[in-house]
Amino acid sequence: MDWIVLIAALIVMFLVLGFVGQAIKSAISTAILIAILLLVLQVVFGISPTELWQEISNVGQSLWRNLPRGFNYR
Description:
Keywords: Membrane, Transmembrane, Transmembrane helix. The chain crosses the membrane at residues 28-47. The structure is a single chain. By secondary structure, this protein is mainly alpha-helical. It has one domain (2-71). The chain is 82% helix and 0% strand.
């Protein structure tokens, strides 16, 4: 009986580690793509990350202001 529990625990451990590994791989590749995009925007168009973040913030605020009052959860 102990062998069955040990084998089941090992299988679960490998499945969890595989999932965590895939999540980390995905996060790293996304971070690399964002860094490349920021570099291209800065070199080609002269747009700094600060300017880009300010514009993203403005878009978010604009969307929030234009929501119908029913969606306002304040």
